[in-house]
Write a structure and sequence with these properties.
about 260 residues, 13-stranded antiparallel beta sheet, 3 helices
Length: about 260
């Protein structure tokens, strides 16, 4: 999905309830919310294998089909957006549907392993199968200039429990599960190494606090840990191989909820 389509889905999900009649406020009832903040992605230990044999050259040996391939990637801090439609019960529980988008850039790749051997110090021509040349950069130098990005769009069903403190301030905890679409583009040193997108089951754990501004509106701040259950597989363009990308992130967000009474 393109960014504008994802943002439209978030906005539409949030606005859908805005047409509900706004009767007198009660604790129990429908609410909508929007949030924004930063994404702090965890490193990815990318793991895959060659799907075809790479022939030998005068300078480099052959790479058999099925040879393991791996490298690690770290990411820069990104951003996150979300919209929620939920229902609050008088017993402290809330049920919620959330649309969430996040994006972050690649920081660097490192520790490229082929068949378990680290080739960061090898001439980068080993990847392109060109001739070796002392003027060529090493594999490690090429992939250290990360470039590329990862974006996520997820739809989650969440459950929360608000802790009643008898004040306008209410801590809460929550958990959710859903589907997350991961879009990966790896371009170290501007070279299109691999890209792809894949949907997978994801889960999230949340903790935060809200502050009631009025019977109708409240501010909230939240920490979320979100992760896909399985790696997102992409096909590599530079090599005949597939690679599984780990996808997990911590999110720090703040936003506002507007409540509608029954």
């Amino acid at each position: 999905m393109k960014l504008n389509k994802k943002l439209c889905l978030i906005a539409a999900g949030t606005a859908a309830v805005a047409a509900f009649p706004t009767a007198a406020m009660a604790d129990e009832g429908v609410y909508v919310g929007i949030g924004a903040g930063v994404s702090l992605p965890g490193d990815s230990k990318n793991r895959g294998a060659f799907t075809g044999a790479v022939p030998a050259t005068d300078d480099f040996g052959a790479i058999p089909n099925g040879t393991p391939l791996a490298w690690d990637t770290d990411f820069d801090t990104g951003f996150a957006l979300s919209g929620q439609v939920g229902y609050k019960f008088n017993n402290g529980f809330r049920l919620e549907v959330e649309a969430a988008y996040s994006r972050y850039d690649v920081g660097s790749h490192f520790d490229l392993l082929v068949g378990g051997a680290n080739i960061d110090g090898v001439d980068s021509a080993v990847l392109t199968r060109g001739p070796a040349n002392p003027a060529n950069p090493t594999v490690g130098a090429v992939i250290a200039d990360g470039q590329g990005r990862v974006s996520n769009f997820g739809l989650f069903a969440n459950v929360f429990y608000d802790i009643d403190t008898g004040t306008a301030f209410k801590p809460y905890i929550g958990a959710g599960a859903g589907v997350n679409w991961v879009d990966v583009d790896f371009r170290p040193s501007g070279v299109e190494v691999g890209s792809g997108n894949q949907a997978g089951i994801a889960y999230q754990l949340m903790a935060g606090a809200s502050y009631e501004l009025s019977p109708r509106a409240e501010l909230f701040g939240q920490y979320t840990y979100r992760a896909n259950g399985n790696r997102a597989d992409i096909d590599l363009d530079l090599l005949p191989a597939t690679l599984g990308i780990q996808n997990h992130q911590s999110l720090l967000t703040a936003g506002v909820r507007v409540k509608f009474g029954n």
